[in-house]
Specification:
Layout lengths: L16 H30 L5 H14 L1 H11 L6 H20 L4 H20 L1 H6 L14
């Protein structure tokens, strides 16, 4: 039987809701990074920042960083097993950012709460056994069909 005829875990059955929700949360974070990056970039170019070069660099950096969660979200929707790694990394990177936002004495505190909730929820969804099975990821000690 060829590999084209053999059904793979990535394409059989409907996509679990948990996987869809994880992809949506990753996409939401990516879009937020794009919006924030463009906002900083525009303010750096049109406003009067303390350091224009730093503002432009920060804006471009945020837009480039947005590629990680956006690509992960696309991969999760397509049931690509590689996509869970970048999605988990994105959530782990978001937690210290949320903590720093929570330490601020300003309007950043609600943003920190929202980011922390989204990151923890996405992590829970990404490590869920149903999500892992849907992505075709085998755990340690679970060789699957390797011997066949």
């Amino acid at each position: 039987m060829s590999s084209e005829q053999t059904p793979t875990p990535q394409t059989t059955g409907p996509r679990p809701r948990r996987l869809t929700y994880a992809a949506l949360l990753a996409a939401l974070e990516g879009l937020a990074l794009v919006v924030g990056g463009v906002w900083i970039l525009v303010l750096g170019l049109t406003g009067e920042p303390d350091d224009r070069q730093q503002a432009v660099t920060g804006g471009i950096t945020l837009v480039v960083l947005a590629l990680l969660p956006l690509l992960a979200a696309r991969g999760l929707l397509g049931r690509r097993s590689w996509s869970r790694g970048p999605a988990v990394i994105t959530q782990l990177m978001a937690l210290p950012v949320a903590y720093n936002l929570l330490q601020a004495d300003s309007m950043a505190i609600p943003a920190g709460i929202a980011l922390a909730v989204v990151a923890v929820a996405a992590l829970v969804l990404l490590v869920n056994p149903e999500t892992t099975r849907a992505l075709g990821i085998r755990g340690p000690g679970n060789p699957g069909d390797v011997g066949k």
